[in-house]
Amino acid sequence: METRSERAEATLAAIVDAALTMAALEGLESLTLGEVAKRLGLSKSGVFSRVGSREQLQVAVLLEYDRRFQQAVFVPAMREPRGLPRLDAIMRRWLARATDTDRALSCIYTAGAFEYDDREGPVRDQLQDGVLRLRAALRRTVLQAIEAGHLRADLDVEQFVFEMDALFTGLLRDTRFLRDPLVHQRGIKAWERMLAAARTSASPA
Amino acid sequence: METRSERAEATLAAIVDAALTMAALEGLESLTLGEVAKRLGLSKSGVFSRVGSREQLQVAVLLEYDRRFQQAVFVPAMREPRGLPRLDAIMRRWLARATDTDRALSCIYTAGAFEYDDREGPVRDQLQDGVLRLRAALRRTVLQAIEAGHLRADLDVEQFVFEMDALFTGLLRDTRFLRDPLVHQRGIKAWERMLAAARTSASPA
User: Fold this and answer.
1) pLDDT per residue over B81-97, tens digit each?
2) Which of 2.40.50.140, 3.20.20.70, 3.40.50.1100, 1.10.357.10 would CATH assign to domain B59-198?
3) Does the beta carbon of A167 lie under 8 angstroms from any beta carbon of chain B?
4) pTM, entire model
5) What ipTM was reported for this prediction?
6) Which residue of A17, A105, B95, B131 is surrounded by the most CB atoms within 10 Å?
7) For chain A, how are helix, strand and coil distributed in percent, rounded to 5?
8) Does A159 sit within 8 Å of B189, measured CB to CB?
9) Taking the CA of residue B31 as centre, how many other CA atoms within 13 Å lie in the half-sphere pointing to its CB?
């Protein structure tokens, strides 16, 4: 039998899931407790008692987004050997999310960065924290590829990671705003050129 | 003596200028006729009689933004010789705008692309039109650099222009959201590497 706390947890998960869908389609700023309650057929006070303020709901959405991103991109890539194979798997999975138009989920962080560039507060802090954690994880993976002898020892790691993220951001914009069906191939081509310039002769094919 | 139509034109210019500042700081979606009227000490009906609907004001803001962008980036670059010098001047002026934090104007198109990716209507159409015109102008300039023998004849022009725009978008995000002071140098470094890979031996230094 389902316990009371299991039910409460399932309701909270449903609230965060509905809010994540809304935020992905209409932006984090569009989220309101009332609208989420309406979509789930709950009372606004019922939502409030579970998630707290609107800002707390926005932060919960970002944490849930992170969890899914890890699950879709980093967890499977960790099964690849350390070094270039793992780095390549991360980037390809990440780029694939930008052009996966079935799930509109890939835009919360990037759209959020432009929504919140001039707005201070816990949502901006959480967004920034997420971007910086992603960059740190990419940096670690690039460094491992250098240690493994797959990428050049004199590679500017910070520059390389900046260019990875710029490529993803541009790809996402072209997919979602220009709706250009060729853009996934362009992203892959740009990535392969970045890798070709950073590779050593000892790197796996 | 100032004529009546000159006064009307000056008022319209002041309305569009105030709306452009608002849109740059808070997003195109934040624009309302009432708020613009308040900031200028005009009546809401006075603003309405001059610009028409909120959507027409948003479109007018985008056209004025385009005019200023042309003036700041393309007009001075046209004084450079055709080919690589002109292409390089355009990209450097464009990248400089991304990191010019005094004028927050550089973000209307990029932020707008994420604000309007799922919203249909005249504002989205105008945004898309602006992005496509910019891409076409960049494409022409890259083609001229190929004709001048400065860039490789087998260069994938569409790919090159996609990567120029992705670089700008990533740079803008890092400047305005991460507030990273080193990012302008990173943008220039990435651009110089793109050029180095596309150059012929006949290209000017």
Assistant:
1) 999 999 999 999 999 98
2) 1.10.357.10
3) yes
4) 0.89
5) 0.85
6) B95
7) 75, 0, 20
8) yes
9) 29
